[in-house]
Amino acid sequence: MNLQMWQKTKNPEEVFTPRASEVNESMYVKRPDLEAALERGLRSGMHLLIHGESGSGKTWLYKRVLKYLDVEVYIANLANASRLKSINAEFSNLVNREQQPRQTAYSETKKADLNAAFASTGVQHQDQYVLGEMEPFEACLSHIRSSSGKKKAILVLDNLESIIEDLSLLKELADIITLLDDSRYASYNVSLLIVGVPGSLREYYQSIPSLSTVANRIREIPEVSRMTLQECKDLIHQGFITELKYDSKNMNMVMSHISWVTDRPPQKIHEYCLELAFLGENNDKRINQNLLDEADKFWLKQSLSANYSVIESMMNERDTKVGRRNQTLYSLGLVESEEFKWSDIETILRREFPDSTNDLTLNLRQILSSLAVEKNPIIKRSPKGDAYCFFDPKYRMCLRAMLRKSNSADQVEKIPISHI
Q1: What are phi and psi of 371, to 5 degrees?
Q2: pLDDT tens readout for residues 88-112
Q3: Strand pairing partners for 219?
Q4: pTM of the model
Q5: Is 401:308 a contact under the CB 8 Å cutoff?
Q6: pLDDT tens-digit profile of 323-358?
Q7: Which residues contact 157 (CB under 8 A, 6 or more apart)?
Q8: Which residues does 216 contact at the CB level (< 8 Å), separation at least 6?
């Protein structure tokens, strides 16, 4: 390989960027429905709420769409507001980060030095002019409008989950949303985009009579969730084939495996592909089943070790004859829907382990109930109480990556990661 070719070759960490806050343009996969919903929301004139699980691609989505629409973006971090116990304090931080230190006072000193003999009796004259200060929210809006000129501007309030249980900060947020209808604040023509994990903000404000009108000022776009199967395959193909120039042999198998194991949140796809790409560097950029098995282990160790430990603590001992709990855990990993009932898991379990379940009562109700009340539960009751959902989506990913059927077919084994 000559120097020119070598310089054009990208490294895995330049392609698969799970922690990048800025959009990796070469790896952005379009999500047409969400992009269209966000664009319509911006045109509606209402303040917007984007929600979705961590790693679902919320940040890349809004940054990519707003850049495409030529909108100026300013970001205030609600995690910082939580730390400072004030959203206004974070607005002040935003202005101070982006502006040069402001001149709040001007001092002019004149000193007349007549000669060395009279240096100690110099005459001083000082004038000071103190500039007026706006309150932090208006100062932030003023700065945004001044910096944006005539362009549309959005103030992003990121990490909503950091304040969702702090009633005083939620009240402060409600006041901020309300103030933007006041003519003095509305004149800056800046809209809010609230981003975070929970999607319950509008419902919270609607439940409080004194704040119910706030909910009417917020438009919620559909939840940003895991990628579709095709979007996931597009991302994997773009990374390995287009960007890293990997051998395309076995790529269908590779895409199917990664789509299944990661459950398709963008951040997790990037994490897994990064580990796989590192391994592939030493295998002439070829991926086979053995390499996927190794990637599973590294990914479990690097990204899901805490979830692995929780699941491991729930498994039957190895010498248990049937290991019904292990079979149940394995079956939970195969469930596709966000919510599921004990009967759904029983159907999967009987399908996967026919020999040890034939003509037997399985008592899945009790097993699932016990998994939901563990010290560190992996499932929980759904909001309606008639079904279950995963306590954290990462548990489903971990179950898929760490559990395998053993050679005896009706027993389940875990992939060991302690030696990695």
Answers
A1: -70, -25
A2: 999 999 999 877 544 443 334 334 4
A3: 48
A4: 0.83
A5: no
A6: 899 999 999 999 999 899 999 999 999 999 998 888
A7: 76, 78, 87, 173, 192, 193, 194, 195
A8: none
